[in-house]
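Re: the 133-residue chain
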Amino acid sequence: MKYFTIPELTASAKARALGIDNTPPPAVKVKLSTLVNNLLDPIREKWGGPITVNSGYRCPTLNKAVGGVPTSQHVRGEAADITVGNQAANRRLFDLIAGGGFDFDQLIDETGYSWIHISYSPGRNRRQILHLK
């Protein structure tokens, strides 16, 4: 783990505000490390600049509080919502990921590149690219 940390992927202002303990169990920490080592760090390396994690791991209680679906990959420690600061830059990052040979499960443009959802499921990556309005 070169650029991202487990605390960065578990930090949540919403969890703090609601008093929710968003500490991941050991098996989820392993998945978060896998996400970082196989996807987030290589993307950051190729991008060449900072990438911010808006949302990483969400315990079931936090996931429900933010309106996430129960089957969200965030709950399993397999997903992160990321940004590089603005929609135009996020679009460039999205295009870099989509065409960069990365092994991902889902790459989702969230509401006009407001942020990017990226996930990694070892052995089950679908390389699915979606654009949500």
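The first helix runs from residue 6 to 10.
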